[in-house]
Amino acid sequence: MAKIKENSTNNLNRKYIITDCNLTYSICMVGGRWKLLILCNLENGKLRFGELRSKICNITERMLTLHLRELENDGIVKRTVYAEVPPKVEYELTDIGRELIPIWEQLSNWGEKHRAMTRPE
Amino acid sequence: MAKIKENSTNNLNRKYIITDCNLTYSICMVGGRWKLLILCNLENGKLRFGELRSKICNITERMLTLHLRELENDGIVKRTVYAEVPPKVEYELTDIGRELIPIWEQLSNWGEKHRAMTRPE
DNA sequence: TATGGTACATACAAAAAAGTAAGTAATGGC
DNA sequence: GCCATTACTTACTTTTTTGTATGTACCATA
């Protein structure tokens, strides 16, 4: 999230895996702690920064900003700034971002099933 | 992976998110650096520890062991030990593990498409 | 008796991710 | 002039993940 060391084994391995495997590449795109929660909240339309912050309880402004920046850089989320004071910024899913929705619905179902299997009442 | 501090904000947030969101829960299951590469390699049947190690270049024995343990604990991979010397251990996907295959194929396609979009030649 | 193969375990170090606390800019309303 | 609002920064600390290096058990074979 912050600075990474370009030539660390860690970073080189990450690059190697991402290059090698589309699947790992995809997972990395949405792999940050809060990213999926952000994306889920955007599923039904645009939200302002402050709306996201209050919908996702426990997230700090710093984390929200960092994840949104990454999602924006990765073309999954679109950011629109309105020239107003106080500032108004809206976030929404891009087309390629929306294409994740049916996939994550399945993943979510899998999770529910898995959870039921491993922790039966 | 190693010891975690039960009451750190970091850990509490992780628990909270996982409890709250099946999707994040699912992603956490396969979120480790090498997990998906391991799972992909098991897609076509059982493999021994040493086979996995040589198929996944750059992975260390420690990382392979750690990830396999987690996948086993999460019921995604099954471990079979043969009472032989030298030891022989085989790994394979469980039923719930196999149910991820169609999902990760879609994710993989998404990744390919996304990659083409963001880095067109 | 020494050696080799297999699947690990352990102690430690480096790197990355997440969290904390405080500050900033712009401007409209009081 | 002062304060409130919004969407951020920045500097720093803590926690977690990843990687390095080395050691272990077991027994068959040389």
Number of helices of chain A: 7
Give the low-confidence spans of chain A: none
Write down the overall mean pLDDT of chain A: 94
Structural class of chain A: mainly alpha
Tell me the total number of β-strands of chain A: 3
Seen as an oligomer or otherwise, the chain set is homodimer
Tell me the major beta sheet of chain A.
3 strands, antiparallel
Order of helices and strands of chain A: HHHEHHEEHH
Q: What is the alpha-carbon Rg of chain A in Å?
A: 17 Å
Instruction: Report the β-strand fraction of chain A as a percent range.
Output: 5-15%
- Name the shape of chain A in a single word: globular
| CATH fold descriptor of the largest domain in chain A | Arc Repressor Mutant, subunit A
Keywords (chains A, B): DNA-binding, Transcription, Transcription regulation
Protein name (chains A, B): DNA-binding HxlR family transcriptional regulator
Pfam families (chains A, B): HxlR
Organism (chains A, B): Pedobacter cryoconitis
